[in-house]
């Protein structure tokens, strides 16, 4: 009969080998693939957004090149930059024929703010006396950055 309290047959516990770090389990591969797909989608969306707004960057650069606006010629140059920008963002049939008050109303409607009318540029756009050129440039920059695209 063997003694149950006999410690001579005692053996260490056999520990399984540690789980290797490589190759990862299938779940990690799936997570990595999903992360890469999300990064690619974000990069594509960012690239598309950047290309789609190239006309805005060009219009802002053109406004910067104008410098200060102090006379009717400067105001006409700002209006020309805004018209070129609008022709890119809106259908030609909607924008091309606009002049004077209709052009000002279009700018007001699409800017979401009352910058142009509040500054009194209705007369200046049609050849009247020039208003505050810095305020006009600020309103034009805001319109270029924030105008609502339609159609």
TrEMBL record:
Q: What does the UniProt keyword field contain? A: Membrane, Transmembrane, Transmembrane helix
- Record keywords: Transmembrane included? yes
Give the top-rank taxon of the lineage listed in the UniProt record for this protein. Answer: Bacteria
Give TM regions: 27-47
Cited InterPro entries:
DUF4381
Q: What is this protein called?
A: DUF4381 domain-containing protein
UniProt source species: Ancylobacter oerskovii
